[in-house]
Amino acid sequence: MVEGAGEARSPVDSALARWGSERDRRALEDAYRASHVVACHRGVRLVNSIGLVLAPVGVLLDHQMVPARAALFLWLRVAAFAVLLVIQVLLHTARGRRHPQWLAVVGATSATGLAVVMTALSGGYGSPYNPSIEITLFATALLVPWAPGWTTLVCGLTALMLVARAFVVPDTGRYVFASVFGFTLACAFSVLASYIGERWRRRGFQVRWTLAHLVERLESAERLRSEFLGAMSHELRTPLQVVMGFADMLREPTLDEAERSSCLDRIERAGRDLLECIDSTLTVARLEAGHEEVLASAVWLPVFWRDVQDRCEPMPRAAGVKVAWREAPAVEMFTDPRHLAVILRNLVNNALKFTARGSVSVEAREEPDAVTFTVADTGIGIPPDARDAIFEMFRQLDGADDRRFGGVGLGLYIVRRLVQQLGGAVSVASAVGVGSTFRVTVPKRPAAAVGRPGTPRAAYAANGD
């Protein structure tokens, strides 16, 4: 529910503002409308059922109060009963479930119209049927959970019928003022009851929605904690076991120089994996805590490109997999070189990890106001239903406990978060068994750049990460 700009925020509104977004508010409003329609449908069925049950009682009262008009009133009640019966049938249809408010308007107006006609035929304002108009308005406002506008519509239609009755059957008796005052008071109380009920229903639904939102976030946090412990226990234990195992092998006096060199290479690769795991975890911790600031500076792309290429060269890859770096355009950007380097390294590392044969190509293309970086591979590809999930924390395509491709599952999550901080966008196109193409578009000069003033082109090496 969107409150007025001048109103004080309730704890529920503050919770939604803190944990949610405008999308959450729209979802809240849509969910409330859907639940409101269901509740309104239930209320209309209840009121309509009460009207059908009370119809025979009304016939008996007619014989007691106005026996001379009992036969005519019987036909009027049969007509009203038929209208309620049709409404009851329509309430069980798809259209009736979607628009129960209009059926309620028809039913309530038919009931008040019946009362107006019966009062006109049995004494005007002094008729014993006159209070039934107010009773119908009260019952509708209290039992049908709808917005005040619908109650106002029913009251307005009933008032028009009363005005028409006054022209057709003039009545200047002593009950005129009391009847008009009673009807006006009934309309005011009915609209007020609808308004208060609507406010309470909205507030109650908003509280339940927020509680469900918080429970969902708590469950998500618990799930992430479990996944974090599972991933870290595997990714920390595996390289440490490698380091300890090959360190023990190095103590063997029978090893020749080639075998010792191989052991050292394995230890070095395990150390790199361990360092990558720790770096990714620390980066995510800084991002989640809001401590990963954007420090923008002038970046001469060719120099930056060569530096990133050199840093990606030692990355592990399958035998025969080549990395082709296209020449970068001669363009200067004003962005955070540390973040941009992490983005490209994570994308290249991800491509090499999931490419068993073929190649990986890395390209930068200048746009009018941005630079698009493309990392394409000939790896396993990504199914369409997993293309959003891969940018979440601890997500990998295999999803298995053994994590045969290695890694914690934080690389693409870090990419998405850092790209957002730079004011850019990331997308992926992929075909299973063919490969994947990741595109990152970063503006040359973000609208709100934060950090140091521009530095000379040659000074990038000092500002690298």
Set down the secondary structure blueprint.
Elements: H1 11-19, H2 22-65, H3 70-90, H4 94-98, H5 100-120, H6 131-143, H7 148-168, H8 176-250, H9 257-289, E1 297-300, H10 301-312, E2 322-325, E3 332-335, H11 337-353, E4 359-366, E5 370-377, H12 411-421, E6 425-431, E7 435-443, H13 460-463
Parallel strand pairs: 2-4
Antiparallel strand pairs: 1-3, 4-5, 5-7, 6-7
Helix pairs in contact: 1-8, 2-3, 2-5, 3-5, 5-6, 5-7, 6-7, 6-8, 7-8, 8-9, 9-12, 10-11, 11-12
Structure explained in plain terms:
The chain has 465 residues and is of the alpha+beta class. It folds into 3 domains: 11-217, no CATH class; 232-289, Helix Hairpins (Orthogonal Bundle); 297-463, 2-Layer Sandwich (Heat Shock Protein 90), CATH 3.30.565. The chain is 62% helix and 9% strand. The chain is built from 13 helices and 7 strands. The protein has helices at residues 11-19, 22-65, 70-90, 94-98, 100-120, 131-143, 148-168, 176-250, 257-289, 301-312, 337-353, 411-421, 460-463, and strands at 297-300, 322-325, 332-335, 359-366, 370-377, 425-431, 435-443. The strands form 2 sheets. It has a 5-stranded mixed sheet with strand order 2-4-5-7-6, covered by helices on one side. A two-stranded antiparallel ribbon has the order 1-3. Helix 6 (131-143) packs parallel to helix 8 (176-250). The longest helix is centred in the middle third of the chain and has 75 residues, at 176-250.
